[in-house]
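Re: beginner question about structure tokens

> Can someone show what the tokenized structure looks like for a real chain? I only ever see the sequence side.

Sure, here's an example I had lying around. Input first:
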Amino acid sequence: MVSREELRELEEITAGEHYYVSLYLNVDPITNPKGEYITHLKNLIKEAEENTPKEIYKSIKGDIERIESYIVTNKREFKRALVIFSSGMTGLWRIYHLSVPVKNQLVIDMTPCIEPLLDLIDNYPRYLVLIIDKEHGRVFIVQQSEIMEYAMVHTPDVPGKHKKGGWFALAEKNYQRHIDYHVGIHLKEVEKTLEDLLHNERIDIIFVGGHEEARTRFLQILPQHIREKVKGEFNAEILIRPDDVLQKVSPLIQEYERQKERGLLERLITKALKGDAAVLGVDDTITALWEGKVHILVIDRDLAMSGFRCKGCGFLTVNHMDICPYCANNMEEVEHIGDYMSQKALEQGATVEVIAYEKDLLRERGGVGAILRY
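And the corresponding structure tokens:
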């Protein structure tokens, strides 16, 4: 998983005398069942060599070779996409394994090309999860069923419970006020961390875990504009493992996403039935993709549909064809045409919304559709 905080160092690199190589490569085994991404990589390298001045290409040739060697020898680590930033002259070497597809591209420039990665962060929902007690606050980011611990807030001077009885009972109320005061300071520190994170990472949805007393008190001090982002709560101990946090918060995320999906599908279906810049069904959606009209592609996560793809221009169809009607190259049969549709949409700068919960509503209308740009 990638956070904006991680990318800030790359954002701050200014153009100087050295060049950087940025690679975005789809390595999804579904769309690359025979390791076709190696061929795609070699084509990207060949194109870069042909279009880059010789002196510049010579300066980054070592980076190209290092990237190629890594991809050939480390395929077991791959997910769906791979992003690499390299500059041997500055010592930069960053690798990101992504669970979402990307547009294949190799960029040679005087700064790292991070814009596509920032777009991915914005286009795929991320959720902030806070676990809180009277001394600690742990902040996690969840995206695409992955979890990353982002920050820890610890206020060590919060007093514990006072003994009862005898002389101590006389000061118990004052002591409790003392505890409450320190807990309040701690909760304010957590609030500040939370507010900074929401701003820096641009996350709009929060889930809060912990004991009920701590959760309730924390939510009471939150400003209204942050409290409105809280979409669920759950019980948890402060030392809970990240994997267990993910297990506890997943049902809350699923319910939120289910409601979000239903709203999107209702919008798509209503617009399509009115003929208002939307289409339903694989044929009309492929046509819209080929014409570059798709703004949001909406697709069933489990869409099981084969089709045909042109080996030359990438034209897609569910109809049997031997020769591409556009470039006359050979067509090949592909098992998962939905993945190729998603890849095509991303290459055109469209958003891809994968329907995971309200699938029946979409399946009744072909399993795929799109809201169009015009």
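Each token stands for a local structural state, so reading them left to right follows the chain. The first strand starts at residue 20 and ends at 26.
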